[in-house]
Write a structure and sequence with these properties.
The chain is an all-alpha fold and about 260 residues long. The chain has one domain. It has 9 helices and no strands. Helix 1 crosses helix 6, helix 4 runs antiparallel to helix 6 and helix 4 runs antiparallel to helix 9. The longest helix has about 40 residues. It is globular, with a radius of gyration of 22 Å.
Length: about 260
């Protein structure tokens, strides 16, 4: 009887989790639909948009540059260890460039933005919800979704590709310096390998991924913050869940898009 009760409790827990997930998915889709509807309606919140672009992108530059540089340096070291066995050190540049452009640039840049900007967006909107600031906007005839949500989603969609390019550039520079000054390989060989193997399709596919990742970061963070409940504890949980859910969705969508974009001929 105890085993049956345990199994029943597990099933009920799974059903409750599934219902919660469906509720959150519904809230996200409703928020996305409303955001698209308010995107083309006046008044346009240019000042708020610029503020969010600065917060999401400009204030993340140092984090992105440092993370990208060390990622490129580690990639160069690992590629050198692997390719030295086959006397293929001349392909280190291609390995680093393709890895950054196709996968690591979009994914890691997005994950960095989740931790720095996405969590802050969820916490800010959640605090505004708990302190009735969102309701106050409605009372002043200001549409909260247009004023709060639309600029944040647009900012993440615009700045994530920009930060991805910066991440990839700093990663390639870091790899170049590692190859030339630590491994003793001519920088010209590294650059020639990059030119031979890295194509515009690789960069373009990575940027398409980054736009989707930016939408995920903005939408999940705004959804968790906008519909928060439970006071200060609810804000903390919403912030944590926004980071976890965004990260999982980015990794899952990265797999799906990679399987579509880079399908073997």
């Amino acid at each position: 009887m105890g085993i049956l009760a345990f199994i029943g409790s597990v099933i009920l827990s799974l059903l409750a989790s599934a219902r919660t997930a469906l509720d959150e998915l519904g809230r996200g889709l409703v928020l996305l639909r409303s955001s698209v509807a308010w995107l083309f309606r006046r008044p346009f919140r240019y000042r708020e948009m610029i503020r969010q672009l600065d917060f999401v992108g400009v204030q993340s530059v140092v984090l992105i540059v440092v993370t990208g540089a060390f990622t490129g340096m580690v990639l160069a070291l690992q590629a050198h260890i692997a390719m030295k066995r086959y006397a293929a050190e001349s392909l280190i540049g291609a390995a680093v460039a393709l890895s950054l452009a196709r996968e690591l640039g979009p994914v890691l840049a997005s994950l960095m933005l989740i931790g720095r900007a996405g969590s802050a967006i969820a916490a800010e909107l959640g605090t505004m919800r708990n302190t009735d600031q969102i309701d106050a906007l409605s009372g002043m005839a200001v549409e909260p979704i247009q004023y709060l949500v639309v600029p944040r989603i647009l900012a993440t969609m615009i700045m994530t590709p920009a930060m991805t390019v910066l991440f990839e550039f700093s990663g390639m520079v870091g790899a170049y310096l590692t190859v030339q000054y630590q491994m003793g390989i001519e920088g010209a060989i590294y650059m020639q390998s990059v030119r031979d193997y890295l194509g515009w399709d690789d960069i373009g596919h990575g940027l398409i991924k980054s736009v989707v990742f930016g939408l995920i970061v903005g939408l999940v963070s705004c959804t968790k913050g906008f519909f928060v409940t439970g006071g200060a504890q609810g804000v903390g949980l919403a912030t944590t869940r926004s980071v976890v859910i965004s990260s999982l969705l980015i990794l899952a969508s990265d797999y799906l898009m990679t399987s579509i974009m880079f399908r073997p001929a």
